[in-house]
Amino acid sequence: MEEKKKKTKAVNKTKKSGLEAPKKLKILVTIVNREKADFYMSVLESYDVNLQTMLFAEGTAPTEVMRVLGLNDKGKSVLFSIVDANKVKEILAQYEDKYFKTKNGQGIAFTIPIKSVIGVMVYQFLANIKTEEER
To answer: Is residue 28 part of a domain?
Structure first.
């Protein structure tokens, strides 16, 4: 009985202090044609993504095979973005919509869960949590 009271008191203190449970974060990896990378980065910006990194990549097929098949290998861009886990489905739905409506809008996207982050300020930046001073 005493144990239940202690837990209740701890929960109430958290609610009174205004602390919230941390947002779960994921790394969203998006691979698209190089010329479309800016387009997809702007889609991500509309979801309050604070951190995005773009790397240039190449396809895996040798140039000889690409030439025989009549395909152009203009290169790929790999976007790494830190997103709120609750927004992932919405972002992927937006991507799917853009893939079908955009000429040559093909790509692939997947997520990797983030299990821990060291440092409160780093976490607040990645989760796009504004402090009282920033508001």
So the answer is: yes
